[in-house]
Amino acid sequence: MKVITVEDLSFRYRRAVNYSLRDVSFEVKKGELLGILGPSGSGKSTLCLTFNGIIPHSIKGDFSGDVIVRDPKTGEEYNTKETPVAKLSTIVGLVLQNPESQLFNMTVEDEIAFGLENLGLDRNEIMRRIMWALEVSGLEGLEKEFPPNLSGGQKQRLAIAAILAMKPEVLVLDEPTSQLDPVGREEVLGLISLLRKEHGITVILVEHHTGYILRFADRVIVMDGGRIILEGKPGEIVEEVEVLRRLGVKLPPSLEISHELKRRGLIKRLAFTEEDLLSEIKSL
Ligand SMILES: Nc1ncnc2c1ncn2[C@@H]1O[C@H](COP(=O)(O)OP(=O)(O)OP(=O)(O)O)[C@@H](O)[C@H]1O
Ligand SMILES: [Mg+2]
C-alpha cells in the first residue's frame, strides 16, 4: 500500500534562479525504509519539506506536480496542495535537519507535550503518549531536564520523540545523526531500527552515512541537481559505483574494497560490512 505518491514534482524557492526539485516522481510504501542519498544542495531537505506540506504552504515558491499522502488507517488521500500542514502532520512527522531549531520548550516533558496539546487530546492520553515516547527514545528520567543541557544524541532523540508522540504513520528524518559522534549516531540509528521492527512505522531517511542506508534501507533514491538519478534496492544502487563516486557519495570502505576485488575477479559479491568482506576474503 502506498503512503506517499510524488508525481512530477518541481519546486523553485521564491527569488531563486534555479529549481531545487525537478520532475521528481516516486512512491513510498507502507512499512518500508526509504533512504535518500545525494550531494549537498541536491534537494534532499527541500523534498522532505514537501511531505507534510511545509512546501508549498509555509515556504512558498513555484510549485508544480503533486504530493499525495494517504492515511493508512482510513485509506483517505490528501493532496498536500489542498491540505493544511496541521492535518498532514498527524500522518507525516518531520524531524528537521537541525534538531535544535525544533526544540524550544523548558523541559523534555513539555517539549513532547507541545505537539500533543495542539492535537486536542485529553490529559490522560497526553500523559500516556509522553511516557511512551520517553520510553522508546530512551529518555526516561530526563523528563524535567532543560533541553539545551542534553547531549547531542539526546537532543536528536528528543526531537524524534516529540514527533513520535504524535503517532505519525510516516517518520521523515533529515540527517538525524549529522551532529553526532559515533555513540550518539548508534543511539539514534538503533531507535530507528526499533521503531520499524516493533511499531511497523514507515521511515524516510536522509543520511550521509551511506553505509547505514545501504545496510538498512529497503529502497534508495539518489538525488542530484533536484532530480532523482538512481532508484533501487541497496544492492542495485551500489552497482552504480561510478555514478556515486562522481556525485561524491562516499561508500563505506568495505564496499570500496570489495568493488576493487570484484573488478579484478577475485570475489563475486559486494560486501556491505567489514564482516561480510572478511568472510568473502576468507572464502577465496
Ligand atoms: N530557503 C531557500 N531559499 C532559496 N534556495 C534554497 C532554500 N533552501 C534551499 N535552497 C536551495 O535549494 C537547493 C537544494 O537545497 P537542499 O537544502 O534541499 O539540499 P540538500 O540536498 O538538503 O543539501 P544538504 O546535504 O547540504 O543538506 C540548493 O541549491 C539550495 O541552495
Ligand atoms: Mg539538507
Set down the secondary structure blueprint.
Elements: E1 2-13, E2 21-29, E3 33-37, H1 44-51, H2 54-58, E4 61-70, E5 77-79, H3 85-88, E6 92-95, H4 108-118, H5 123-136, H6 152-164, E7 170-174, H7 182-199, E8 202-206, H8 210-216, E9 219-224, E10 227-232, H9 234-237, H10 241-247, H11 253-263, H12 274-282
Parallel strand pairs: 3-8, 3-9, 6-7, 7-8
Antiparallel strand pairs: 1-2, 1-4, 4-5, 9-10
Helix pairs in contact: 4-5, 4-6, 5-6, 6-7
Task: Describe the overall structure.
By secondary structure, this protein is α/β, with parallel strands linked by helices. The chain folds into 2 domains: 2-238, P-loop containing nucleotide triphosphate hydrolases (Rossmann fold); 252-284, no CATH class. Helix content is 39%, strand content 23%. It is built from 12 helices and 10 strands. It has helices at residues 44-51, 54-58, 85-88, 108-118, 123-136, 152-164, 182-199, 210-216, 234-237, 241-247, 253-263, 274-282, and strands at residues 2-13, 21-29, 33-37, 61-70, 77-79, 92-95, 170-174, 202-206, 219-224, 227-232. The strands form 2 sheets. A 6-stranded mixed sheet has the order 6-7-8-3-9-10, sandwiched between helices. A hairpin with a 6-residue loop joins β4 (61-70) and β5. α4 (108-118) packs across α5 (123-136), α4 packs parallel to α6 and α5 (123-136) packs antiparallel against α6 (152-164). The longest helix is centred in the last third of the chain and has 18 residues, at 182-199. It is globular, with a radius of gyration of 20 Å. The N and C termini lie far apart (43 Å). The relative contact order is 0.15.
